[in-house]
Amino acid sequence: MNKYYFSILLLCSLSAQAQSPVDASTSARANEVATNTQREEIQYKNIAKEGPMVSVVPGEIKSNNASFRSKVTSNNIADFGELELSRANFKITKNQQNAAYAVKFDVLKAEQVAKAAEGFSGKAIGGLMGGLGGSVLKSVKTNDSSEVWILGMRFQMIDPKTGNMLGTGYLEDRMELGAKGTVVMGISQSASGGASLDTLVQYLIQKCVFEMDSKFK
Fold first, then answer.
1. Which of 7, 13, 137, 138 lies at 20 to 30 Å from 175 by C-alpha?
2. What pLDDT, on a 0 to 100 scale, did the predictor assign at position 149?
């Protein structure tokens, strides 16, 4: 009975931990070299003032990181750019000749700078215990991972008629991705913390648009 009771307590503890991915134990190790970041949506200061007509064109992704390029494309970036510029009260057009600016967002840096992972398997301990409690414990598997990325983005504002550069800027930030999961008796539970890579890109676009909202209206 004591062994069974111990197994249930351990199982409940593992399940509770799986519900808190942002507080994953590996997060502390990953953040020894980069700060854990969770971002709120940026609010544009001059949103009440209408901005000029702009046309967003697909930018470049300079990073060769295969994981990043598999999840983020130039078209994703352009779509996020249109969304945020519209939210900042710029007028959007698909026709560059009608635009005051052609806008590009280029990813110049996408680097994974820290990663940590750990896991637990109850197979060995469950085998020693035996009985129903041991069977349950043998089925328990957990995994816990965190990774920190540095992203850098350049925005360019170009005269669509002459091709001349009218404005540019560069912004970068450090952001964390995290995940945690538990499997018990064939039933899995998982959750992720932080943000996805495309969400991190959108946040940097917001920072770029914040600059445009401040300087180009």
1. 13
2. 86
How many residues would you count in the chain?
Answer: 217
**32 pLDDT more than 60:** no
Nearest to 125 by CA among 111, 112, 139, 115: 139
Q: Which residues pair with 150 in a beta bridge?
A: 111, 174
Q: Which residues have C-beta within 8 Å of that of residue 80, sequence separation ≥ 6?
A: 105, 198, 201, 202, 205
State whether CATH 3.40.630 applies to domain 2-215: no
Compute how many other C-beta atoms are within 10 angstroms of the C-beta atom of residue 44: 21
**Ranges 70-84, 133-147, 176-190, 197-211: which has the least confidence:** 176-190
- Nearest one of 76, 68, 77 to 177, comparing CA atoms: 68
Based on its alpha-carbon atoms, the radius of gyration of the chain, rounded to whole angstroms, reads 24
Mean pLDDT of 175-195: 49
